[in-house]
Amino acid sequence: MTTVLALETSCDESAAAIVSGRRVLAGVVASQVEEHARWGGVVPEIASRRHVEALPALIGRVLEQSGLAMADLDAIAATVAPGLAGALLVGSVTGRTLARLHGKPFLGVHHLEGHLCSVHLGEPLPEGPYLVLLVSGGHTELIRVDAPGRYARLGRSRDDAAGECFDKVARLLGLGYPGGPAIEAAAAGGDSGRFRFPKGRVSLPQGGFHPYDFSFSGLKTAVLRQVQALGGQGSPLPVSDLAASFEQVVAEVLVERSCRCAVEAGLATVVLVGGVAANRRLRRLMEQEAGARGLLWRVAPLAYCTDNAAMVGLAAVERFEAGGCSGIGLGVAARLSLERAAELYAPQPPF
Ligand code: KG4
Ligand code: ZN
């Protein structure tokens, strides 16, 4: 059984975990959201500094919780792409230094491959290919997974990611950061049918619309216009109804396009991962729609939807068991498509 220490520092959560096979022996996440909330979003420089401060204690805690010593580990892993370059560097340098010091192999992990693996920390999936709806603060993608490491992207957002849209709309409604949980709380008890917001379709050059791509920037503008129109009337903003109507349309569009994509691609299972997968309205709608279309659906356990190191550890275990190992000189990249994840283990690294 492969046992790895994994580090995650791609954005505003510092995290460490020890994973053995498919079991999480220990996992801790130190969130920086309160600090970034003052600025209404992630400040990259602050994120890097906080990772530097947090990581040593987090590593100490997972070793203590698991009862393991460095000598018991088979490899060390860290997220190296995509994400904030400075933040990624902290995890990468820490991981590579530990690997060098203790004579262990190092694995650089693709953050999205980590999110894809998060579903394996829950109920087992049936055999065969499946469709993943990956919805986070930085990405909205429909990915066909044929086997570990074998992916094809079937749809994506052409502008803002779904989580980013939650964050921006929360800000214009005067709610907190991160926006997803704030909107979800404000939407409870709101009338989701009061406002009709657009579903953001992507036009094709030959006419018609792209069946599986998303666009969220127009939705954000539509909410802004509605807020301005209501503000002009002088009465208090119906924040709860606005939040519920917004949340409803995002959930509908994600569920409709992913279920249609699964059916048309001949895939029997739809999987939800990423921070937005924590949203209860989205889960509820997915359950209804998947049921109506005869699809099976799975979602990552709640604790592993938002960024964490356990999912990174699992991705590293899979790569390591398939013979993967990264060079100790591997750098980091703010951008790298998921299809290129295998290059992190190639003799000629991509960066
Ligand atoms: O996966 P994640 O932790 O980080 C990225 O890789 O981006 O996702 C963070 C995103 C944020 O935009 C946050 O607002 C959103 O996930 N999010 C939610 C919920 N919890 C987090 N969106 C909707 N509903 C939630 N309950
Ligand atoms: Zn993430």
Low-confidence regions:
none
Tell me which CATH architecture of the largest domain applies here. 2-Layer Sandwich
> Going across the major beta sheet, what is the strand order?
3-2-1-4-5
How many helices? The count is: 10
The residue-averaged pLDDT reads: 96
Question: For the report, how would you describe the main beta sheet?
Answer: 5 strands, mixed
Provide the structure class: alpha/beta
Could you name the CATH homologous superfamily of the largest domain? ATPase, nucleotide binding domain
Instruction: Give the C-level CATH assignment of the largest domain.
Output: Alpha Beta
| Rg, Å, rounded | 20 Å
Cofactors and ligands: 5'-O-[(R)-(carboxyoxy)(hydroxy)phosphoryl]adenosine, zinc ion
Number of strands: 10
How far is it from the N-terminal to the C-terminal residue, by CA? 30 Å
Number of domains: 2
Give an overview in words.
The chain has 351 residues and is of the alpha/beta class. It has 10 helices and 10 strands. The chain has helices at residues 33-37, 44-66, 85-102, 111-118, 162-172, 179-187, 217-232, 239-264, 280-292, 310-321; strands at residues 3-8, 13-20, 23-31, 75-81, 106-110, 130-135, 140-147, 150-156, 269-273, 296-299. The strands form 2 sheets. The chain has a 5-stranded mixed β-sheet with strand order 3-2-1-4-5, with helices on both faces. A 5-stranded mixed β-sheet has the order 8-7-6-9-10, with helices on both faces. Helix 4 crosses helix 10 (310-321), helix 5 (162-172) packs across helix 6 (179-187) and helix 5 (162-172) runs antiparallel to helix 8 (239-264). The longest helix has 26 residues, at 239-264. The model has no long low-confidence stretch (mean pLDDT 96).
